[in-house]
Specification:
233 residues; alpha/beta; Rossmann fold; four-stranded antiparallel beta sheet; 10 strands
């Protein structure tokens, strides 16, 4: 589905990523984990074309996308749930969801308003509320739903549960598990290792702009000393 090969990214003269590589197979959930400031969001933004890479290659289904603008990458089938949610505050829940609805790949059973409300019943009661009046958890559900309305092949989630209450976090993990069952490939950034290990197929640990470890969930959970050192958990 996605191949990221030896990418480097700079902010002016400052280098943020140093040869980052990762792979996501069709239908897989893959995580990118690490402390704050280690390059997680830069990696996500580089895949999405928000931050241009200076070296390396990115392929979606064997097609190079690293030269494309963000909106063109989205049209190819990658959707982003950004850090901080960034819903449209002056639009209602309904308007947020339908404003960017698309089914460019002509899926026979696409994501639509009804399917999103089935996935997140909490949004049904708030359907005509302005997005800035929602709780943080509801805004995160709305941000995920908005991305799904583009019917992506690959979903990127940056800090999926940051700042959310435990009950809301469990709801987000339930949602991601459901999306995995439906065959959507997912790359998720988060700090809740135990929760990630329950749903993810592969994990990448990033430190100072470099991938320093990769492996499966059972392998990750065996690395207690390593996690304590690299993640502070």
């Amino acid at each position: 589905m996605l191949v990221v090969r030896e990418i480097e990214t700079h902010y002016g003269a400052s280098q943020a990523l140093f040869g980052v590589s990762l792979n996501i197979k069709s239908g897989e959930v893959v995580t990118l984990i690490g402390r704050n400031g280690m390059g997680k969001t830069t990696s996500i933004n580089s895949i999405m074309g928000i931050t241009q890479i200076t070296r390396g290659e990115i392929f979606l289904e064997n097609e190079p996308i690293d030269h494309l603008e963000s909106f063109k990458i989205n049209r190819k089938g990658i959707a982003l749930v950004p850090e901080g949610r960034q819903v449209f505050p002056n639009l209602t829940v309904r308007e947020n969801l339908v404003a960017i609805a698309a089914n460019r790949n002509k899926y026979p059973n696409p994501w639509n308003l009804g399917k999103i409300l089935d996935l997140f019943p909490q949004l049904s009661a708030r359907i005509d509320n302005m997005a800035n009046l929602l709780s943080g958890g509801e805004q995160q559900m709305l941000a995920i739903g908005r991305s799904l309305m583009t019917n992506p092949k690959l979903l990127l989630l940056d800090e999926a549960t940051e700042g959310l209450a435990p009950l809301v976090r469990r709801e987000i993990w339930r949602c991601l598990n459901q999306l995995k069952k439906e065959g959507i490939s997912i790359l998720v950034v988060d700090k809740n290792v135990n929760d990630l290990a329950r749903i993810a197929d592969m994990h990448y640990v990033i430190e100072k702009g470099r991938i320093v470890w990769e492996g499966t969930s059972p392998e990750l959970l065996e690395q207690k000393d390593f996690l304590g050192n690299k993640l502070g958990v």
